[in-house]
Amino acid sequence: QLSCNIFSDQFRVEIDFSPPSRLPEGVVSVPRRWTLILRDRADTARPIRPEDCHGLLNSWWPHLPEEHTAAKRWSMNGWPSPLGDRLYLWTLTWLDDEEPPPLDPEDLVGRPQRIGDHFLEPLSVTRTFDRTYVELLTGASGRASARVAEVRSRTPVVMTTRDATGERIPHIWPNPRRLFGAIHRSGGGIVGGSGAVGSVARFAPPSLAEPWLELVVNGLAQIRRTPLPGVEVRLGEHHHADNRTVLGWQGGLRLELVGGEHGHVEAFGALLELLELSGVGKYTAQGFGAVRVDTVTSARLPARVPAPRARRASSRSPRRTPQRVAVEEFDGTLFD
Fold first, then answer.
1. What is the pLDDT of residues 229-251, one digit of tens each?
2. What are the DSSP calls for 192-234, one per residue?
3. What is the model's pLDDT at position 9?
4. Fewer beta carbons below 10 Å: N end or C end of the chain?
5. 0.85 exceeded by the pTM?
6. How would DSSP label each residue in 155-200?
């Protein structure tokens, strides 16, 4: 901030040259999501690795040493995806509700960033999600709610469970309770969490988060999962970090809220948005578990077709009357 004071015997004028705020005072813009278009300035480089991306974001948004193993305040929605001609697309999310990110990606346009052997220069940074938790959890946006959604993985989803002997094994067909994350409790209260519900538990205002989470926990039993036609769920081995690999599944599933009241429908819509923001499973801060969510509206009938007017008799065979059919309609991705 740069200020200039002009004094005289009669008056004092203070001129403030600080840049204007992007948002009105008092408005909290979280969660935040950005989509970056980057150009690679390196002539030759090895493929981009998850740990390279994670290292860059740790330099943007550093954390205390004791927080190294704790859940991050951000999620990496996949890795830089090549678009051709050295151009990449990358989406990032900041989840913290108490403080803004130490560095705003919008301030990096034109400044190359090193990711492994690559020097990626942000050409544009677009904020693609900018709603408060209050709007998200209360349905204040006025968006139409859906009861059916299709979830597709964009990067491998890493989830584990324990077998009968106690050994950890990959979990590739998560029920809704696992899919939307977990809530951590201690002493009868909520102290944290992971995934979609965990982001609410960690960052949303407690007076709003606690009753909303109770509503969600009770409503998860009414969400059904079914296979997504034409989308195979498969398990594979993927590079993680330090020459280590992890087992993660890719594919999709269909979710449907089969019961519940209006509040459950609104909460289901918020869960779907949070699912894209926070990701699914482990290592979301390193780009794993990125998903795309499409809401689905079913059985919407087309407008009535007026009956044809009577005509004079003709030797031609009569035309068929158009039939009404029920179709499924895709409303598109929730955002981005």
1. 999 899 999 988 778 899 999 99
2. EEEHHHHHHHHHS-HHHHHHHHHHHHHHGGGEEEEEPTT---E
3. 45
4. N
5. no
6. S-BB-EEE-TTS-EEE--S--HHHHT-EEEEETTEEEEEEHHHHHH
- Range with the lowest mean pLDDT among 7-16, 106-115, 221-230, 326-335? 326-335
Q: Evaluate whether 50 touches 286 at the Cβ level (below 8 Å).
A: yes
pLDDT score, position 211: 93
Residue listed under structure tokens 């943007």: 60
Query: Is the predicted pLDDT of residue 325 greater than 80, yes or no?
Result: no
Answer yes or no: are the C-beta atoms of 121 and 41 closer than 8 Å: yes
Q: How many CB atoms lie within 10 A of CB 176?
A: 18
Is residue 173 within 8 A of residue 157, CB to CB? The reply is no
Calpha distance 173→157 (Å, rounded): 11
Task: Tell me which residue of 300, 293, 298 sits closest to 269, measured CA to CA.
Answer: 293
Task: Read off the pLDDT band of 173 (50, 70, 90).
Answer: confident
Contacts of 46 (CB under 8 A, 6+ apart): 116, 117
Tokens standing for residue 301? 């009938």
b/e burial code for range 8-37 (CB count within 10 A of at least 16 → b):
eeeeeeeeeeeeeeeeeeeeeebbbbbbbb
SS3 label, residue 119: strand
